[in-house]
């Protein structure tokens, strides 16, 4: 998160007049260098050592005219989107089943789900695709490449979603579970009816970012002859030998669609926050921390779990988390979980969130608060209220 | 069972994995360097550097790796004549490394940025109070701590890199594991499931230790506070 | 004020909406599934023909229609079988899915650079052949050093991933050749244009199609060194259908339509098929 926050503000003082001048010169110099690099590349494309001028309208026109859009890009984009949507929905269901599987009281179910999820996360998606493609074609399935793309993406992304659900449940305040148990629900009921629904809301923004990953990964389908956007743009290029140009158009389309989706992923958390007690975290474009047993992002939860285990003979509750003293090896959101999960009500002062207070704005004025700051504060206040 | 053993003697399976590992190691090294450069640009006081870094990250995070790989061959090699060697095999290997590096560097930059978020403000303030300049405080105070704090996301990025190295097939690297797997399936369609599991288990075996190592390192290297 | 005060059980209110969301998701899945499924149903009075969509000169999707030599042959045969052009449903038949498509009954026949081999005869039957192709080389116009595969030592050759044609060249003719594999022939042709490879190899008619689309800048060497019999794939054992197709094909060759279709689809490439084998002799349909 906080992609737009100005980290620079804490690294240097407000520059004086001389500093400002230096910065301005550096600014111009750097800008000039980058423009120069781009111009050189364009010149090279314009006048390559051998071969033809890649910027000529003769090559760009067939890549941009209406026919190209109606016959190639749009059908290709539709195939890409069709596969992505089906894969995301499928991976939600798959992730839900296996995420639940890893939380259920039964140890056997937990182990089996764990092994499946870890396996699917470790195997490269391209290999899954090639395997399913050849397997389906071999066993005489029609549209083998389509189903191979969808199934492989479901298996990989579903496993990531399973981990998101698991961590989503882990991030809920313990009170949710305790309250539902107190109301007379069984453990499984509490999980199914109280915790998981909230976890799902909390992970929806992450699911949108997963959609971006899926959308990008459908491009792998072109390697197994799935007629997605990339494949269609190659095809268009085979008629006029302007593959480079058609690929640029395809790349621009991919970029726009993905950028719009990541924008959505950044907006969504505010709406989702109302429906869950967990923090709906705005996530980076690619989630940095899909958790798993072997996943280092999980250290905090592992530590808290061990800590709770370690105190099973009772005695005075710990004043500070062992983990708090041990490590800060985590990205910011996971730090919240530690404090909230192990809240010690005899020492509310230990809740002081050392690392999450507002960063004084040295570089920018108060008025230039970014959206992310606002979200930060919102998260901050919900946890404190 | 005999068929499977025969596959091992007929094809150089460890060799194919070695190609993937080499791709990963070189790309990891270069993307680390490029990622650090990007993150320094991102936190620098010079706004044009910040813009370029942000644009780079946005661009490469929103493009499929496959298309980048295809561009490396048809754009960088065919048009810009970016060539590493007269030997095609060597050349495509390095083009794939460049493609993977460009792509991964964007994620390395974001991982390091999330690491910078874990460094308490006081560290930067103290550095400034001591009179350190931007580069001194960045390279001596902030980045070392940020690096230790971002071991976990970096580990995930590099695990993804290892898996992404199979996409080098799109850049004509014909000796890496997914290409070898297709080739084997082509000629031994009957043992397709066995072939798939050989390669899949290869990746599980490669990735689990990296995951364990990352968990260990992120605890070990964490800054005690 | 501290954390535990807001521990209201939120799930109870969320539960209905949660189920609703899940049901909606399932509906959406069902929708996409049914969309995907409706591609394969059979329509009465129409014929479904599998072709390539991405091979200029043979089978290529362009402006909503299909053009190429395979397409023209297919149209002629379909016409003789009693299907006008609007009664043809064109389907894409990627190389690795051709047998499966015939076995499943997704298509009635396939004309997609489909070589007749004994291996394939185990799974499907063939009518034809309608063309005898041969592996050849395509070079830049004005290239003087390459007259055949034996000249490729020290040169760079492009072929398509998973095809054996480049391996054949390397094994039989030029051991010092450097190979580049690309996912499609168009990528190879682009590479040839820009000078990073010196030749492209595959069947001559495919090369002729590419050369024809290249606005006269690429040319086929014209010395094929293998023979590939392109057949019309049909469902295994349907000899009556094969007989009908062969009759139509013989007629097409006899009345000159075959030659016209070939000339039209390779125009500008100065392409001459291997005259020793072309026009092909239609084999008797053997009882299988």
TrEMBL record, chain A:
Gene3D superfamilies named in the record: MetI-like
Chain ranges of the ABC transmembrane type-1 domain: 77-265
Species whose genome carries this gene: Bombiscardovia coagulans
Claim: Phosphoprotein is one of the keywords in the record: no
Keywords: Cell membrane, Membrane, Transmembrane, Transmembrane helix, Transport
Entry-linked PANTHER family: AMINO ACID ABC TRANSPORTER PERMEASE (PTHR30614:SF21), MEMBRANE COMPONENT OF AMINO ACID ABC TRANSPORTER (PTHR30614)
Topology in membrane: Multi-pass membrane protein
Cellular location(s): Cell membrane
Region Disordered, annotated ranges: 344-385
One of the GO biological process terms: amino acid transport
Comp. bias intervals (Basic and acidic residues): 344-358
InterPro entries: AA_ABC_transptr_permease_3TM, ArtM/GltK/GlnP/TcyL/YhdX-like, MetI-like, MetI-like_sf
Ranges of Polar residues composition bias in the record: 376-385
Protein's name according to its UniProt entry: Glutamate ABC transport system permease GluD
Family in the record: Belongs to the binding-protein-dependent transport system permease family.
TrEMBL record, chain B:
Topology in membrane: Multi-pass membrane protein
Chief subcellular location: membrane
Lineage top rank: taxon: Bacteria
Chain ranges of the ABC transmembrane type-1 domain: 17-214
Molecular function terms from GO: transmembrane transporter activity
InterPro entries: AA_ABC_transptr_permease_3TM, ArtM/GltK/GlnP/TcyL/YhdX-like, MetI-like, MetI-like_sf
Swiss-Prot/TrEMBL keywords: Amino-acid transport, Cell membrane, Membrane, Transmembrane, Transmembrane helix, Transport
GO cellular component, one term: ATP-binding cassette (ABC) transporter complex
Compartments where located: Cell membrane
GO biological process: amino acid transport
Membrane-spanning ranges: 23-43, 55-80, 92-109, 192-217
Similarity remark: Belongs to the binding-protein-dependent transport system permease family. HisMQ subfamily.
Protein name: ABC transporter permease
Higher taxonomy: Bacteria, Bacillati, Actinomycetota, Actinomycetes, Bifidobacteriales
From TrEMBL, chain C:
Listed transmembrane segments: 18-38
Record's keyword annotation contains ATP-binding: no
Single GO biological process annotation from the record: amino acid transport
Entry keywords, A to Z: Membrane, Signal, Transmembrane, Transmembrane helix, Transport
Cellular-component GO terms for this entry: extracellular region; outer membrane-bounded periplasmic space
Record InterPro entries: Bact_solute-bind_prot3, Solute-binding_3/MltF_N
SUPFAM superfamilies: Periplasmic binding protein-like II
Superkingdom in the source lineage: Bacteria
Solute-binding protein family 3/N-terminal domain sequence ranges: 46-265
UniProt similarity note: Belongs to the bacterial solute-binding protein 3 family.
Protein name: ABC transporter substrate-binding protein
Native species: Bombiscardovia coagulans
